[in-house]
Every structure is written in structure tokens, then in C-alpha cells.
């Protein structure tokens, strides 16, 4: 199985070409590059390094969010267009699950994406005997206070927070001094791991309707619903003219 | 016989996702347009984050519909073109990433197209362009007079100093209780009303080719607010006619000033506001009144708004010149002619 995997859901960019479980090419960039500029050249370089053409690929694996809205859109747009235009299989993997893959297998893993104002996107994962990540608490957008409340049921020294920013680290240390904290710079999402997770994930059935997992409404929609408006199922908000 | 050129073009600069297949820059084999108007009407205007999300939902569907309708496959294509600016950055990026991906996957040359150039070249589907020609670009984002001296060679002669004309329509439309986009309704009301309010015609006395619509918009809003305060009933059709009367005076004054400085054989009007019936009538009358031997070209209504067909028309010129982009192409939200 030849897999092309990539992730641009946060500041780092990661591209990997994995053939039968072996990482043949791995391109990582942590410095602030523009994902929209780098992604396709990096894919091109990765394939070249692996000695493959894009036609040789069997499966496209993409981190589908949550994360930076623009970031996940860039990767998801490239992934769905590539899969559609070349008739390849497509797998979308949670960006948080991908971060959890950096954790210690013995720990209860809490991958995070800082969503500002002491909020985060977070999920809770464990690693099973086969080394696969299982969801304990589904990815969601939460205040850190609510997340801590949920996590109180677990042994604090078993908790491992992954991808913490300095502010999140400060909050976590106050609440769970015994917990393990992996900072952002030490938990880069690796597309090689993304390819591995993708191998055991069901491919997307309907590529046209594959969209990022934002886990949050836009502010405009949030306000609109808050005013008591209801989505009209009979109206299609986008129509062909 | 020369071989035909088939270009797949993408447009996603604002709230329309569009993919077209264009033959030789002249013939539309398909031009799929998915509009998000109904979504943004919930909010009274285009919300950028909502627009970007819709583009991701639509993009592959539009690609496949464009191929199906044109009855062609990827192997028939010669190039892929895409709008890279101006526009909303989040929206532009979806078309750009999709276009780059198709170009990369099928090893096709990539062409980056200026959205404004696309609007001008909508006329390519209507007439044979004769250089130099004058172009009046009127939309929700732009109000420009552009002289086109050769294929793909643009000189901006005049620009708006504040609001775009279509933006002014939407703003006064809101005062009249019309949801975005207000242009068509205001145009219809204006046809029924009379220009009785004497709104200011900004900058028409000035010897330049620039526009300003914010003063007109403010005068309109102040007049309505004043009437509300004193419980005076204003005739909405007359308000619309007075607003549009001022807009048409400004647009035609500057356009014919430009034409006097640069006599040409064709005046091309493009952009969303080129669908305005009042504008179409007014420019035709002015040409007749001045006995000018000049062809007036408006795109068909379907090509006035944003669409990928026009991007394909412009892309053909760049294809012929070998003007290709690389896979590191990025969006340029504030792109203008003079920056290229
Ligand atoms: Zn436009």
C-alpha cells in the first residue's frame, strides 16, 4: 500500500510518503511557512524523494481538523481534489488523534489545540494492545476549566497533555501538577504516523461531501442561531445557477 | 488547422464557486456556478469564513459537473487556470489549492488569472475584441476604468477612492429594507421612480477619472434618517431613482471623459453591476447622443457576476504567451493591475 499523507492543521507542515509501512519520504517544516505556498511543492518533493509519481499512490491520508480553519481547509481541499481527480482512496484522520500518536502508550492522552482565551480543542485517547489509538472522549471545543472538570475522574499522574502552548501549560500545571505535559515544539504532528493511522481507518465514501472537522460554528452562524433562527432544511444555502 | 486549446478554469474569489471548461478562450463548453447568496442572506452580506467553508463543500462537485457538461476528460485539457486575486483570501485559497492540485495531478500548466482581467474578458464571449478598447469595471468590490491596449495589457485610468459602486447599492439597499445583494431590486425600483432628491454627484467636476460613492451613500442615509425623525413618508422608488440617477451620472461622466482622452472602437462593461438595466440604457443613450462610432459591449447576464468562464477567456491569452505559474502560487487578496 502506497500512502501519501499530509497535515497542515496547525503551524507545522508535514508530508510523508509511506510504502508498505515504510516511510520513504518525510518533509517537516516547523518554521512559519505559508501552507498554501508550500504544500504542493512539498508533496511533489516527497514523491520525488520516494521515487514515485502521484499516480502510483493508492491512498491519500489527511489530517482533517480540528485546528486552524484556514490550515485544515488547505490540506482537505488538496486531499479531496487529489483523491477525486485521480480516483484514489481518501482517509481523513482527526488532527488531535494524530497528535495523540506522539504520546506515551501507557498514558491517558489528551491532545490539545489552543483555541485562545483559555479554550482548546481537545480529545482523550488511549492506546490499545495493538498500538491503536481509541477514543475515550470525542474531540470537542471546550474551556480549559470544563476540560479539567471532566478529567478529574482519572488518575492525574496517568494524564499526558500533548501540544500545550505556554498558557495552556500554566493552566494544566496549576490543576494537575502530576500530569505529563508535552509542549507544542516537542509534539509535531508527523505525517508518517498519519499514514499509519490511515491504514486502519475506513476510507471516505463520499469525497464531494468530505469537509474539515471544524468543531465550531462560524461566529456569524452562532449569532444567527442565538437569535432564534433555525436552519431551514428545505433551503439549500448553496445552489447551482 | 491549429489544435484547439481546452482550459479548465476556477473562480472562488468571493461567494461563488465556479469551474468552467473553455475552448480557445472563446467558447464555453461548461460554466458551473454554485452561488452562496442564500447562505449569506442570513447575515445581510458575505461572511468570509462561511464563504470559505462553502467553497470546500462545492469544489470537487463543480469540477466533475464541468467535465461532464463539457463531455471531456482530464486528458483533453491543455491547462488549468485560477483566480489568484483580488478577493477574500480564504475564498481565493480554495480555488487556488484545487487548481494547483489538478494541474499537479495531471501534469498540466497552471495559469494565475487576475479576477478583474477576467471580468473584462467576459466580453470575449460576445464580440471580437479590437485593441485598444476601454473597459468600465463595476461590481461589489471594484469600480475602475481600464484601458486595454493589447491582449492582457491593462492600464488603470480611474479607480474608486472609497466604496465600490456595488457596495454602495448594498448599503443603501439595507436602508430601503432590501436584503443583499440589493442591486437588482434597486434597479427595478429606480425604473419606477423619479430622480427628485438631488443627491450629490461626487467628483464629476474634477478633472480626473476617479470615483467616490461614500458621499452619495451618506447623503442618502442622512435624508432617510431625517425623514424618519420628522415622520415624513418618502417615496422609496423615488429614493432608488435618485440614488441610481446620481450613480449613473458619475459613472457615465467619468467613462466618457476617459473616452474623450482615449478614443477607441469598443467600450466593454463588466462586473456584477453591468447587469444593471439603468446603466445599460444610459451608456447606450450617451453614445447615441454623442454620435460616437463605438461598440458598447455588455456580457450576457450569466457572465456579469463572478464565473470561471471569464477566467478561462483571460487565461487563453496568458497560455498563448506562455505565462505560467508554479505550484507555490499564493492568493493575492489586494491584487490590482498595476502590481503585476
Ligand atoms: Zn467579480
UniProtKB/TrEMBL annotation, chain A:
A biological process from GO: tRNA threonylcarbamoyladenosine modification
Record-linked SUPFAM superfamilies: Actin-like ATPase domain
Chain ranges of the Gcp-like domain: 23-165
GO CC, alphabetical: cytosol
InterPro entries: ATPase_NBD, Gcp-like_dom, T6A_TsaB
PANTHER family in UniProt: TRNA N6-ADENOSINE THREONYLCARBAMOYLTRANSFERASE, TRNA THREONYLCARBAMOYLADENOSINE BIOSYNTHESIS PROTEIN TSAB
Record-given protein name: Glycoprotein endopeptidase
UniProtKB/TrEMBL annotation, chain B:
Pfam families for this protein: TsaD
Main location: cytoplasm
Binding note for cofactor: Binds 1 Fe(2+) ion per subunit.
Protein origin, superkingdom: Bacteria
Catalytic class of the enzyme: transferase
EC number: 2.3.1.234
GO BP annotations listed: tRNA threonylcarbamoyladenosine modification
Reaction catalysis annotation: L-threonylcarbamoyladenylate + adenosine(37) in tRNA = N(6)-L-threonylcarbamoyladenosine(37) in tRNA + AMP + H(+)
InterPro entries in the record: ATPase_NBD, Gcp-like_dom, KAE1/TsaD, Peptidase_M22_CS, TsaD
Protein residues bound to substrate: 137-141, 170, 183, 187, 276
Residues annotated for Fe cation binding in this entry: 115, 119, 306
Keywords attached to this entry: Acyltransferase, Cytoplasm, Iron, Metal-binding, Transferase, tRNA processing
Gcp-like domain sequence ranges: 27-312
GO cellular component, one term: cytoplasm
Cofactor(s) listed: Fe(2+)
MF-aspect GO terms: iron ion binding; tRNA N(6)-L-threonylcarbamoyladenine synthase activity
Cellular location(s): Cytoplasm
Family note: Belongs to the KAE1 / TsaD family.
HAMAP family, per database record: TsaD
Record PANTHER family: TRNA N6-ADENOSINE THREONYLCARBAMOYLTRANSFERASE, TRNA N6-ADENOSINE THREONYLCARBAMOYLTRANSFERASE, MITOCHONDRIAL
Free-text function comment from the UniProt entry: Required for the formation of a threonylcarbamoyl group on adenosine at position 37 (t(6)A37) in tRNAs that read codons beginning with adenine. Is involved in the transfer of the threonylcarbamoyl moiety of threonylcarbamoyl-AMP (TC-AMP) to the N6 group of A37, together with TsaE and TsaB. TsaD likely plays a direct catalytic role in this reaction.
Protein name stated in the entry: tRNA N6-adenosine threonylcarbamoyltransferase
Lineage, highest ranks first: Bacteria, Bacillati, Bacillota, Bacilli, Lactobacillales
Encoding gene, per UniProt annotation: tsaD
Amino acid at each position: 500500500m502506497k500512502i501519501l499523507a499530509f497535515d497542515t492543521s496547525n503551524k507545522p507542515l508535514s508530508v510523508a510518503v509511506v510504502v508498505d509501512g515504510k516511510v520513504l519520504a518525510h518533509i517537516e517544516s516547523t518554521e512559519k511557512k505559508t501552507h498554501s505556498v508550500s504544500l504542493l511543492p512539498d508533496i511533489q518533493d516527497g514523491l520525488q524523494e520516494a521515487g514515485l509519481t502521484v499516480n502510483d499512490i493508492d491512498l491519500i491520508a489527511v489530517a482533517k481538523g480540528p485546528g486552524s480553519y484556514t490550515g485544515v481547509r488547505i490540506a482537505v481541499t488538496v486531499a479531496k481534489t487529489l483523491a477525486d481527480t485521480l480516483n484514489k482512496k481518501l482517509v481523513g484522520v482527526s488532527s488531535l488523534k494524530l497528535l495523540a500518536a506522539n504520546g506515551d502508550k501507557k498514558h491517558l492522552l489528551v491532545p490539545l489545540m489552543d483555541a485562545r482565551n483559555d479554550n482548546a480543542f481537545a480529545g482523550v485517547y488511549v492506546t490499545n494492545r495493538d498500538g491503536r489509538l481509541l477514543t475515550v472522549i470525542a474531540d470537542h471545543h471546550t474551556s480549559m476549566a470544563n476540560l479539567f472538570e471532566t478529567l478529574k475522574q482519572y488518575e492525574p499522574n496517568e494524564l499526558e497533555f500533548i501540544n500545550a502552548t505556554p498558557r495552556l501549560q500554566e493552566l494544566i500545571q496549576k490543576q494537575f501538577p502530576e500530569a505529563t505535559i508535552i509542549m507544542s515544539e516537542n509534539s509535531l504532528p508527523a505525517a508518517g504516523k498519519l499514514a499509519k493511522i490511515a491504514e486502519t481507518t475506513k476510507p471516505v465514501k463520499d469525497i464531494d461531501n468530505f469537509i474539515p472537522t471544524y468543531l465550531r460554528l462560524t461566529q456569524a452562524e452562532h449569532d444567527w442561531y442565538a437569535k432564534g433562527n433555525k436552519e431551514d432544511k428545505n433551503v439549500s444555502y448553496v445552489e447551482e445557477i | 488547422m491549429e489544435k484547439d486549446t481546452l482550459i479548465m478554469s476556477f473562480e472562488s474569489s468571493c461567494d461563488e464557486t465556479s469551474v468552467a471548461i473553455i475552448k480557445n478562450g472563446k467558447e464555453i463548453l461548461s460554466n458551473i456556478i454554485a452561488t452562496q447568496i442564500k447562505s449569506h442572506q442570513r447575515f445581510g452580506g458575505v461572511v468570509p469564513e462561511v464563504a470559505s467553508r462553502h467553497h470546500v463543500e462545492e469544489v470537487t462537485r463543480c469540477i466533475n459537473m464541468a467535465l461532464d457538461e463539457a463531455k471531456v476528460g482530464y486528458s483533453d485539457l491543455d491547462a488549468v487556470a485560477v483566480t489568484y486575486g483580488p478577493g477574500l483570501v480564504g475564498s481565493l485559497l480554495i480555488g487556488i489549492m484545487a487548481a494547483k492540485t489538478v494541474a499537479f495531478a495531471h501534469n498540466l500548466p497552471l495559469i494565475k488569472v487576475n479576477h478583474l482581467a477576467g471580468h473584462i474578458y467576459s466580453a470575449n464571449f460576445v464580440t471580437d475584441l479590437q485593441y485598444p478598447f476601454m473597459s468600465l469595471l463595476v461590481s461589489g468590490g471594484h469600480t475602475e476604468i481600464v484601458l486595454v491596449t493589447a491582449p492582457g495589457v491593462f492600464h488603470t485610468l480611474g479607480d474608486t477612492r472609497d466604496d465600490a459602486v456595488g457596495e454602495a447599492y448594498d448599503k443603501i439597499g439595507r436602508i430601503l429594507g432590501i436584503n443583499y445583494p440589493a442591486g437588482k431590486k434597486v434597479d427595478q425600483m429606480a425604473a419606477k421612480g423619479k430622480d427628485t432628491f438631488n443627491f450629490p454627484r461626487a467628483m464629476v467636476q474634477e478633472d480626473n477619472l476617479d470615483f467616490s460613492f461614500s458621499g452619495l451613500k451618506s447623503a442618502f442615509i442622512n435624508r432617510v434618517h431625517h425623514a424618519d425623525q420628522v415622520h415624513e413618508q418618502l417615496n422609496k422608488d423615488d429614493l432608488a431613482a435618485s440614488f441610481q440617477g446620481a450613480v449613473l451620472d458619475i459613472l457615465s461622466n467619468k467613462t466618457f471623459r476617459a473616452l474623450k482622452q482615449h478614443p477607441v472602437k469598443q467600450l466593454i462593461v463588466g462586473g456584477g453591476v453591468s447587469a444593471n438595466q439603468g446603466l445599460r440604457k444610459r451608456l447606450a443613450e450617451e453614445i447615441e447622443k454623442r454620435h460616437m462610432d463605438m461598440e458598447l459591449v455588455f456580457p450576457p447576464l450569466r457572465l456579469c457576476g463572478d464565473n470561471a468562464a471569464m477566467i478561462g477567456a483571460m487565461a487563453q491569452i496568458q497560455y498563448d504567451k506562455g505565462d505560467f505559474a508554479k505550484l507555490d502560487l499564493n492568493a493575492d487578496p489586494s491584487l490590482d493591475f498595476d502590481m503585476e
